[in-house]
Amino acid sequence: MSATTSSAGIGPVEALTAKVGAIEVFPAETKFIENSTCINAVTHAALPETLKNFCLLEKVVVITGGARGLGKNMAEAMCQVGCKAVALLDLRREEGDKAALELIKKYGTNVKFYQIDVTDDEKVTKIMLTINEELGGLDVLLCSAGVADSNMPAESYDTKRFCNLININLTGLFFCARAAGAIMIQKFKDSASILDANRNLHASGKPKGSIIFIASMSGRIVNWPQEQCAYNASKAGVKHLAASLAAEWAKYNVRVNSISPDYMDTALNVSSGLDSLKKLWKERTPMERLGNENELNNLAVYLASDASTFMTGSDLVIDGGYCCW
To answer: Which keywords does this Swiss-Prot/TrEMBL entry list (predicted)?
Structure first.
């Protein structure tokens, strides 16, 4: 996600629906699958209790960097487990509109794209408030927006380039977490009058929030052979920010965790110029491959759902064993 321009707003995908009272009517040219492939109230009722915990019925999920790659893949997973709505945030309007339309057609889920530069703190706050109002809540935030710089020797690293990467990967992520967290915390406070007397954090009916950061194994180890001190430092910051917010916000029933992947086989890594590097990366990974684009999905669902209600402040490594050596 780049931070060069900013224009908050909703893409033309919203034109897909015309509201009649409280009912959304989709134009005839919008073709939905006949048999939904996602969890709904009927299929959810038939599930064993353990599987029910992994579902996101009535939950609104916000995903930054959601227009493509890992973010879009995780958005699809959220739709599959029955979330009420998904907000895709990204700077790329064309790709974001396309991703939202694809998910609407495939799952029938309420998906909206919001164009945003995550480094613009005022607009980030406004977008989060808009999402909360338009989609009827904000229960899960998944921060996947980020950029990478490789083969950048520290002694000659351009200052503006270094600061830009930190601003997107760490500062922008904080802006998103702060804005979404404030909404989750207020929801918790507003429910105070109906909470049980001993304020048990997991009392029935108490609002819950989940925030998930996509960090990196680069926040734990130093990648080799490429030099990328800014990226590594940003992801170490992401990992520790998650733990810090988890400690602060646990009293509001807002959980914050991070996922630290290995090299993932995404569009960003599809280049003949990377072939020699990818060979080295695989050799240094016990499973001898890169991660597939959808291999963060199940972990993201776990962290977003009630399957992980006692987990906060954790950084979960999914790296094919890379950090073992």
So the answer is: NADP, Oxidoreductase
